[in-house]
Design brief:
7-stranded mixed sheet, about 150 residues, 7 strands
Length: about 150
């Protein structure tokens, strides 16, 4: 872990607005395939419907959340890094935490997000199934990936 990065539990729902901001910058930087109305609909559900249902850890630099991950039942449900901090190791640290502390062995990824697919492949995940629609029934194919490397890709 870099010296200035701290991985810690979320401090409650009061922190959700900042996590939504992180989500938005990340999605705007990586999800160019996502229609604006679909992005906005997901964003509107984050605080009330998505974040409360996963165990969240926050990546913080100098007191500011710059990324977060959410897990449930051995699956990485969400991992987003603020666009200004992409490529600085935040995502790798969040993933490593999820693998070690939460026993994550699976993740679903938008097929059209090639950067994320490559990120998870480099970490030891492999595609085991493809769904043509996302969980909301929208036309965004999902790759279901399982961890195949015993060491989390490291």
């Amino acid at each position: 872990m870099t010296d200035d990065l701290v991985i810690r539990p979320v401090r409650g729902q009061g922190e959700y607005p900042r996590l939504v901001q992180v989500w938005r910058t990340s999605v705007d930087a990586t999800h160019d395939f996502l229609a604006r109305e679909h992005r906005d609909a997901i964003e509107a559900k984050l605080e009330a419907e998505y974040l409360p249902h996963v165990k969240i850890v926050v990546a913080e630099r100098y007191g500011t959340p710059v990324g977060f991950a959410g897990t449930a039942d051995g699956k990485l449900e969400i991992l987003f890094v603020d666009a200004d901090h992409r490529g600085s190791g935040v995502g790798s640290e969040l993933l490593q935490h999820a693998l070690v502390a939460e026993g994550v062995t699976a993740v679903d990824v938008n097929e059209e997000n090639g950067q994320a697919v490559g990120f998870y492949e480099r970490a030891g995940f492999a595609v085991v199934k493809r769904s043509p629609l996302d969980s909301d029934g929208l036309p965004y194919p999902i790759l279901h990936m399982d961890l195949v490397a015993g060491d989390g890709g490291r």
